[in-house]
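Worked example

This section walks through a single chain of length 402. The input is the sequence exactly as stored; nothing has been trimmed or padded.
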Amino acid sequence: MATKLKIFSLAIRNIRRKPVRSLLLFLAVIVVTGTLFSATLFISSMKNALKIGTYRLGADVLVVPEKYEAQARTALLAGEPVSFYMDSSVLDEVKKVEGVKAVSPQLFIKPSSFSCCYSVDTFLVAFDPKTDFTVAPWLKTHLGGPLTGNEIITGREVPVIAGDTIPFYGTSFTVKGTMERTGMSFFDRSVFMTMDAAYRMAAASKTKAMEPITIGRNQISAVLVKADEGFSPERLVIKIEHDVPGVKAIASDAVISTVRRQLSGLLKGILAVSAILWALALLMMGFAFYMIVNERQRELGLLMAMGAKRRHIFRLIITEAVSISTVGGAIGLVVGGALLYFFKGLILESLKLPYLLPGAQMLLELVAGAVVFSVLTGLLSSLIPAVFASRMEPYEAVRKGE
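Given that input, the structure is written out below as tokens.
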């Protein structure tokens, strides 16, 4: 134990002896570890949001008017409020298509500038309680029953709590509950109400609202579809578009797959940059420790002359490198996490993608992986210099170091 403590003490003393060089090595590890950790955490958070959001959506296919496919995709991924309508007869036509197991209509309503005074862009989504398989299961599990009258539930990012009242188009709605965060703005920034409540609101807006809205009871925005067993969403999309004119069917997997391909390309680019940075850090640290060994030949020779074993010299160099990389890696984790926290909003606004931090277990795994990576960086960079130092002959080392 005494030898271990002495080696560690010597290593720390040597690191302090050359503060500028040690600082440069610290910075190299901080940059590499921070970049890789923040990038990996960001990608993992996006994938986590996609996974949870897809599960919450519950539909295999979304059917919308033919001209509004792009707006529907944007609404699903970025939660941007949109309004478009089609005749409710589409619901019955879709129901008749082979391979359709269940259907449910929804209304998408973009609030007017006079509907609410909150800074969050809310998205009104109306559903049919009798057929819905997106919101109704959550209501049954968390609130014990369906919405009645002018009751609504909201996403986590809408700044309200249960019992609050929100006006939309001149009609006041009571918040019955708020849903847990999903990372997808379509759910987190939405206000969910029943179809009947939405139709009543539209009718009353003609006399109550500064900007009235016209929605007939024979209008819907989308049809959510569940595929029957044996029918893939892709196959069902083709059949719906063939059998039902004037609509566009969107497979939820296709929307998610597109984002996953984008994330995959982004991840590959980040990994490539990280690999280059890591290679440069390894070369920089390896060269630095080679120079350190050359500068300290006399010191190392004297240590061996006084009884230090070759393994002690090897461990001394390795300990210095691992100490630098461990501390640098820890700082890199903090710096990378802080930068991601402060610039997350700007990045998400630019990419228009969902984001939700993974669970505690995944976070711990990412942190542990980053720490192991930083330690490995120090170990690999100092391995050759440590072997070189341990193989020096004491007399030759002292003579060359004079």
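What to look for: The first strand starts at residue 61 and ends at 65.
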